[in-house]
C-alpha cells in the first residue's frame, strides 16, 4: 500500500458544485460566526472573556482552509487577526492556551493538542514562517510539563491523545529531535486505550460516558494510522476492526454510527451528532493518506455526500445537533427527549440546538474534504476523491471536470512540464468502466503521463440497489449516494436570546414540520434513474441533482410512543393500505426530512 501526502490550499482549488458548496458555507454561518457568536467573537483566545478552550480552535480548523481555498482576502485577513492574537499571547515558556499559570494543572489540554493541529493547518495554508517555532515551543513545554508530572492527561485530552500526533509528526519531520519521539510515547502511554472497553459498544448505555462518546469513537479510529510510524509500531489496521465492531452494533447506512451523545444502537430514528460526522470524515482522510487503502476513501465519500449535507440547512446558516436516518420531523420532542443524553431540541435546525461544539466544529467538513481531491507520493499523483477541482503545482496542472457523485463522468485535462504517474481511484461499485471510450477490465487505473497536454475521459455506471439493513429494513443506494423519500415541510422560525447568545434570522432556530406523507415501504425493486445536474444549491430538496423513480406503497408505520414527531423503529404492519404510487426518491443529503430505511413489501 502507498502512503499519500496532502496538497495545500495553494495547490488545490475546488470547482463546480464543490466550489458552490464552499461559497454557500462562506456566506453562511462559517464565514460569519466571528461576528455573531460570543464564544468566537469575545473569546479568551483573543483577549475576551468567553470560551478559552476548544471553540476558537474548532472554528479556525475549518475557517482557515475555507478562506484560502476560496482565496477570500477578507476571510484571510480575519484568520491572520486570530492567529496573530493567539501567537502574541504565547508565554515565554511556550504555553499558548488562555489560562493562568496556576490553573494549568486543571486545564484540559485537549485544547493544547487542538490548537497545535490548527496552527499546522494555518502554516500549510499561509506558509507563515513563524508557525513551526510556535508549535515547537508549545510542544516542548507540553513535553516538559508531562514528563515532570507537573500536568497529566485527563478528560478529553486523555481520550483524544492521538490528535496531538498531527503536530508531533510535523515537528519530527521538520526538526528530527529525540524529545519529540519521547513526547509521542508519553502521550500514548497516558492516553486512553479504547481496546480495553470496547465490550461497552455492544449495548447502548443511555448514560453519558467518555468511552462510548460518539465523537471520541469517530476520532479514535485514526489513532493507529497517525501514531504507529513515529512510535515504531507495526500497522495492524486496528481501525478496520474497531469500525466493523462499532458498525455491527451501532452502524448507520451512511457509514457512520448512532450517538446522541453516547453510542445508541441500530435504530434508524436514533441520532448522530454533527461533530461525529466531520470527525469521522477527517479520520478517514487521515487513514487513507497514511495507508493508501481505498476502502477509507470510499467510506469517506458516503459520509461526505450524505450525512454532512443532510444535517446542514441549504444556506448553511443552521445545523442540527443530531440527524436521524428516518427523520419525519425536526420538532421539539414532548415529555422526555428520545435521545440518550441530549435535550428536546437536538434534531432542530439552529445556531446551537443542543451543545455548541458542532457550531464551532462543523466548519472543517467541506474544506478538508476538498483538500482530499488530489494527493501525491514521489512522482505519483492520485485523484483520490473525484470531485470537481483543479490541482496546480509548480510543473503540473490537472483539472477534473465532473458532476460526480451525481453522475459518473470524469474528464481530466492535464498540462504538465514533466513525466509522472497518475492514478485515478475508481470506486468498487463502478460497473462498465470506460477509459477514453474503450471498455477496460482493470479498476486499478494508472497512467504514465508524458510532459505536454493530456486528456483523459473516464466513465462508469452505478446501479441502484436495495441494501439490507438491520430490523428487516432496506436502503436504496446508488454508488456513494443513498436515496430517501423526501418529506415536504413547513419551517417554523424561533428568534430569541439566551445567556447573551442571540438567535436571529438567518441564524435563528427552525422546526421542520412535515406536510407530506412519510409512511412508505418499497413496493418492488424496479427503479428508474433520472440524472439531472447539480444546481446553485448542490444538495437542494426542491431541485435534487439526481432522482430515482420507485414504486412505493403506504403502510401503517406508526409513531414511537409517546412522541408525535418520531416514527417507530420498524413499522407496525407491512400490509399496504393503498395502491402503489411512483415517488421520486432524492439523495439523502438533499432531504432534510426523509424516510430512508424502509421495508420491502414484496420480496
Ligand atoms: Zn458537536
Structure report:
The chain has 603 residues and is an alpha+beta fold. The protein has a domain at 464-595. It is 32% helix and 22% strand. The protein has 17 helices and 25 strands. The strands form six sheets. It has a seven-stranded antiparallel β-sheet. A hairpin with a 2-residue loop joins strand 16 and strand 17. Helix 4 (55-69) packs parallel to helix 6 (110-126) and helix 11 (214-220) packs parallel to helix 14. The chain is globular and about 75 Å long. The mean pLDDT is 97. The site of zinc ion has 6 residues, from helix 14 and helix 16.
Can you tag this structure with a few keywords?
603 residues; seven-stranded antiparallel β-sheet; single chain; binds zinc ion; alpha+beta; globular
What would you call the structural class? alpha+beta
Q: Give helix % range.
A: 25-40%
Low-confidence stretches: none
Beta-strand percent range: 15-25%
According to DSSP, the number of beta strands is: 25
Bound molecules: zinc ion
Tally of DSSP helical segments: 17
- Spatial ordering of strands, largest sheet: 2-7-8-9-14-11-12
Q: Label the overall shape.
A: globular
Largest sheet: 7 strands, antiparallel
Overall pLDDT score: 97
C-alpha-based Rg, rounded: 24 Å
How widely separated are the two ends? 41 Å
Amino acid at each position: 500500500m502507498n502512503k499519500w501526502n496532502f496538497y495545500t490550499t495553494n495547490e488545490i482549488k475546488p470547482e463546480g458544485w464543490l466550489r458552490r458548496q464552499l461559497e454557500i458555507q462562506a456566506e453562511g454561518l462559517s464565514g460569519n460566526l466571528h461576528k455573531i457568536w460570543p464564544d468566537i467573537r469575545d473569546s479568551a483566545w483573543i483577549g475576551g472573556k468567553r470560551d478559552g478552550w476548544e471553540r476558537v480552535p474548532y472554528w479556525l480548523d475549518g475557517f482557515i482552509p475555507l478562506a484560502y481555498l476560496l482565496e477570500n482576502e477578507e476571510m484571510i485577513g480575519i484568520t491572520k487577526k486570530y492567529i496573530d492574537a493567539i501567537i502574541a499571547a504565547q508565554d515565554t515558556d511556550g504555553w499558548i492556551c488562555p489560562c493562568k499559570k496556576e490553573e494549568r494543572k486543571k486545564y484540559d489540554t485537549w485544547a493544547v493538542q487542538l490548537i497545535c493541529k490548527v496552527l499546522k493547518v494555518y502554516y500549510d495554508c499561509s506558509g507563515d514562517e513563524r508557525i513551526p517555532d510556535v508549535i515547537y515551543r508549545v510542544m516542548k513545554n507540553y513535553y516538559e510539563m508531562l514528563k515532570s508530572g507537573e500536568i497529566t492527561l485527563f478528560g478529553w485530552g486523555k481520550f483524544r491523545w492521538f490528535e496531538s500526533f498531527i503536530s508531533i509528526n510535523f515537528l519530527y519531520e521538520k526538526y528530527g529531535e529525540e524529545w519529540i519521539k519521547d513526547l509521542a510515547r508519553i502521550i500514548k502511554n497516558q492516553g486512553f486505550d479504547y481496546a480495553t472497553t470496547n465490550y461497552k459498544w455492544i449495548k447502548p448505555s443511555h448514560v453519558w460516558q467518555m468511552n462510548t462518546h460518539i465523537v471520541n469513537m469517530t476520532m479514535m479510529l485514526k489513532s493507529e494510522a497517525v501514531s504507529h510510524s513515529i512510535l515504531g509500531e507495526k500497522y495492524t489496521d486496528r481501525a478496520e476492526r474497531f469500525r466493523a465492531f462499532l458498525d455491527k452494533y451501532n452502524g448507520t447506512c451512511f457509514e457512520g454510527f448512532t450517538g446522541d451523545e453516547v453510542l445508541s444502537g441500530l435504530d434508524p430514528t436514533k441520532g448522530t451528532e454533527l461533530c461525529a460526522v466531520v470527525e469521522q470524515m477527517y479520520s478517514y482522510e487521515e487513514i487513507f493518506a497514511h495507508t493508501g487503502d481505498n476502502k477509507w476513501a470510499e467510506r469517506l465519500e458516503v459520509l461526505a455526500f450524505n450525512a454532512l449535507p443532510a444535517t446542514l440547512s441549504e444556506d448553511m446558516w443552521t445545523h442540527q445537533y443530531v440527524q436521524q436516518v428516518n427523520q419525519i420531523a425536526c420538532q421539539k420532542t414532548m415529555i422526555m427527549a428520545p435521545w440518550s443524553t441530549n435535550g428536546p431540541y437536538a434534531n432542530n435546525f439552529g445556531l446551537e440546538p443542543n451543545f455548541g461544539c458542532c457550531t464551532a466544529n462543523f466548519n472543517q467538513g467541506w474544506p478538508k474534504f476538498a483538500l482530499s481531491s488530489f494527493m501525491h507520493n514521489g512522482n505519483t499523483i492520485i485523484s483520490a476523491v473525484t470531485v470537481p477541482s483543479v490541482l496546480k503545482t509548480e510543473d503540473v496542472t490537472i483539472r477534473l471536470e465532473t458532476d460526480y457523485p451525481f453522475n459518473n463522468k470524469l474528464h481530466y485535462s492535464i498540462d504538465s512540464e514533466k513525466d509522472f504517474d497518475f492514478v485515478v481511484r475508481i470506486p468498487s461499485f463502478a460497473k462498465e468502466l470506460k477509459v477514453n471510450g474503450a471498455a477496460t477490465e482493470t479498476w486499478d487505473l494508472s497512467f504514465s503521463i508524458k510532459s505536454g497536454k493530456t486528456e483523459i475521459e473516464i466513465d462508469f455506471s452505478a446501479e441502484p440497489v436495495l441494501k439490507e439493513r438491520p430490523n428487516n429494513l432496506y436502503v436504496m443506494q446508488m454508488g456513494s449516494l443513498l436515496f430517501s423519500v423526501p418529506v415536504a415541510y413547513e419551517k417554523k422560525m424561533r428568534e430569541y436570546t439566551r445567556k447573551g447568545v442571540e438567535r436571529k434570522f438567518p441564524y435563528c432556530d427552525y422546526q421542520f414540520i412535515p406536510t407530506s406523507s412519510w409512511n412508505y415501504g418499497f413496493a418492488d425493486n424496479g427503479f428508474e434513474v433520472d440524472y439531472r445536474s447539480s444546481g446553485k444549491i448542490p444538495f437542494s430538496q426542491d431541485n435534487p441533482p439526481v432522482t430515482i423513480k420507485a414504486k412505493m406503497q403506504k403502510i401503517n408505520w406508526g409513531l414511537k410512543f409517546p412522541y408525535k414527531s418520531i416514527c417507530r423503529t420498524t413499522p407496525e404492519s407491512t400490509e399496504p393500505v393503498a395502491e402503489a404510487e411512483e415517488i421520486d426518491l432524492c439523495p439523502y443529503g438533499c432531504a432534510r426530512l426523509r424516510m430512508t430505511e424502509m421495508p420491502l413489501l414484496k420480496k
